[in-house]
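Hey, sorry to bother you again with one of my protein questions. I've been staring at a protein lately and its backbone has me curious. I owe you a coffee for this, so here goes:
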Amino acid sequence: MAIVKPFKGVKPPQAIAKNLSCLPYDVMNSEEAAAMAEGKAESLLHVTRAEIDCPAGTDIHSATVYNKSVENYKKAKDNGWLVQDEDAKYYIYAQTMNGRTQYGIVGCASCEDYNNGIIKKHELTRPDKEEDRMVLTRYLNANIEPVFFSYKAVPEIDAIVENIVKNQAPDYDFVAEDGFGHHFWSINDKATNKELEQLFLTKVPYTYVADGHHRTAAAARIGLEKKGQNPNHTGNEEYNFFMAVHFPDNQLKIIDYNRVVKDLNGLSDSDFLAALNKDFVVTPMGADIYQPAQLHEFSMYINGQWYKLNAKEGTYNDSDPIGVLDVTILSNLVLDNILGVKDLRTTTRVEFVGGIRGLGELKKRVDSGEMKAAFALYPVSMKQLINIADSGNIMPPKTTWFEPKLRSGLVIHEL
């Protein structure tokens, strides 16, 4: 069963929570981070993207940048911008997008659970990206940013969350520059914290990495590293745990993750459309944007026209957790068979566009001449994600897009 424990969070005072909190480090580049932090001395970007306070051209993976992170983190605590709670507790973090709110429990997941498969993953990680977050965690001795987990919903946990949200004023409640609402409560009652810990231990057999595979892997590796350095290791030390926001699966909605391609592998438009007819029912839809309406249906934009592509029976395997995915169908039948793209992880001919940007972004990139064709996919469901993780399979690259992103800085876990 899953270990999810309370911890003594490091948090900003209410008055500066909006300015201090920020988007995750990996959804922006250095220039964007500098622009976001401009005029905000307390912004956590000074810690998570400390290169913005270093001389131009400084290597973002250099000791100079990591040391600046440490300096800026210490400054934030010295200035009272970040203050540690006296008691270990859980927190509730809710996000509102398009009128829909999802409520997560912020607690510490177990490194041991990650290593023994209680925490399940659905993506491969890249060692270089793991290493960067490991180094920052090592320097700061803290999980600065939370990871995004899910679990199969438990009514008793839902009831606790609902009661607190209904009867307790939030610590933070604001709309960020991303346009999304962020709401945060501390769970101060000791009996409630104890009950939540027991509910996770008795009702939640597994948790699932939804977003943040690299940070999760890095946190687990830091736990092992610190264990090896401590001859008196007991397993109860704070470094054995890392911060995650745990959302019930029935509240989460995955957004589509779409593809644009630079060329048609030497085919003319008409030859390409003819090749598609082998495995798809191809229906012209005109110039207006067309959104896929169901599984195994795609929309394609090429040469000013949208098309509906329905995969023909027998071209996919609904009993295979990977074969049933529309990203697999598109990769096998179009990108590989017709366009000759063999490895999505290394190709430069295909790029990925998060559905949060809308299908207008696909049209724009094709109309500009930068891309030749675009493909929009019906989003993966949480049920599919859990089935894949439970079966030990790995999703193809760039399959899921979660939105809103978790704000960094609402709470921090020190090791």
Q: What stands out?
A: The chain has a mean pLDDT of 94. The two ends are 23 Å apart (CA to CA). The CA atoms of residues 51 and 342 lie 36 Å apart.
